[in-house]
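Q: Can someone sanity-check these two? First one:
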Amino acid sequence: MRIRWHGHACFEVGDDDIIVTDPHDGKSIGINPPQVKGDIILVSHDHYDHNATREVEKKNSLVVNKPIEKKVNDVNIKGIISYHDESEGEKRGDNIIYKFENKNIKFCHLGDLGHIPDQDIIDEIGEVDFLFVPVGGNFTIGPERAKKVIEMIEPKIAIPMHFKTGGLSLDIKTIENFLAQYDERVTHKVGIELDFIQDDLPDETEVWVFSL
């Protein structure tokens, strides 16, 4: 199965049914636009750097922007309500966490999570193989809280996202503060794209860092 990063919080996941998360249009945030068309497009919240579905839509694409449970072909999707801030959405509104399963691999995309989830949300998320977690702060949880959330969810792989990269115009942190919290033996740089099989997944949590 393939995972490809298109910058910010936008990932492409899958081989047959292509899932795209939180698409941006590129130019609005200073990076290249996504080069993918999704069968399923997941939108965590209605902000311009996460909801540019027109960039990745094709005929018959399914856009999911609500906390629903749905099965599409072999993909199971569950949306879980959370918040974009620490004040239950008073500042920036709701955020949808998406748990989705494809070919028995369990993924969770936290969107623009802005708070430490309570135990009810952790229980709803359940077992996770790949966790896409924001680490850049300001608009989302920052490095320290991102590490705390990873420890609560205990994924096999944590993939940091929503951090400052070259050209990105948003006022968020680079990845260095987040990575500084981890022993380098559990962090791995994997480039822009990764192909893997289930046997590649570790027993203990590792951090896999994508780059553009």
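And here is the second, same format, sequence then tokens:
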Amino acid sequence: MIDLNGIPPVSQKNVAIRVTKQAERKLRQGHPWLFDGGITEESFSPKSGDIGIVFDQKRKFLSVGLCDPDSPIRVKMLAAGKPAKITADWFLARLQDAADKRAHLAETDTNGYRLVYGEGDFLPGLIIDKYDQTLVIKIYSAAWFPHLAAILAGLETVMPAERWILRLSRNVQAGETWGLNDGMVLKGDAPDAPIPFKENGLDFAADVVHGHKTGFFFDHRDNRQRVGKLAKKKTVLDVFAYTGGFSLYAAAGGAKSVMSLDISRPALEAAEQNFALNKHLEPVANCRHETVAADAFKALEDLATSGRTFDLVVVDPPSFAKSKDEVGGAVKAYAKLTRLALGVLAEQGMLVMASCSSRVSAELFYETVVNTAAEAGRPLWQQMQSTHAADHPLRDGFPEGAYLKCFVFSAID
């Protein structure tokens, strides 16, 4: 196990913080972030990871969190309403609670899932994903470095695993990391191949060291399963397929053929490997799987020009709006993708559209898709709306946590 003694400890004294009325109102509603503009007074200048106690206008306890002085989100809230002493035992209790909430997943033949969902599990800025006997700890805030030893000690008790991998967000990598780096092995042997895991009985493997996020997107687990149930005897197109999650579920559900479309050739090679892991399943073995490495927008145009159509089209693009200023461009991109997808959708086909842009509301996303389809002369009827899986719990007062929107439509031809 790697030595973490080089990380400076937090201050022995907590930081007392006073806030604006607007910030107080947001915190009372349950929002886990205190922005720099909401702070009116600090008892001293905190270091990253120091414990900050927020007081209301009447100088009564409001909430407690981790200070992050180099971030616009100056304090990440751990608890509110009732005073809490943030210790190793407190972190252990939070990890145990998170593990208990996911215990039911074992009954679904699943050993790959999100163990800790940051703000949703009252550990903002911290993600922990489980890949069977490998845990991937991703840090989105430098405030977690001084508390990493406590988190690892808690994991040893709550979820013993053979290997721990550390992943760091880009903004964290740009600052002081105390000798830690992205992809570092904190415990166990360095993996020499993608890590195998199971999801709803299907076999996958993920590159947890170099892959996007932690290597796989667990948030779509339930939506992938829904697609699998819709895919029987259908031709399927999976746009922005990445490593073939939707594609494999469609094949396992009895699809006649599946095309996985993504700009990344390595991602598609991983998709082919995931198919190979499941060749023992008759529906997967009988499904014709085709991969296309190309820009999604251009490839959809080319498929339409060639007259290629599909019974079921899944469009799950990356986030198009990471800031408020990008929402307009994101809406235009979703509208264009809708038109292009309809261009390859068979008569009375089914279209699955997803958005992971938290800045784009479910209402705006739905209106964009439906209005675009109506303008294109191919109206859509909504069959289903869903969000992310239960291992990504929502938190009251934190709408940003409900980032994933997924709609299933039927074409009315």
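A (reply): Looked at the second one. The two ends are 60 Å apart (CA to CA). The longest strand covers residues 345-355.
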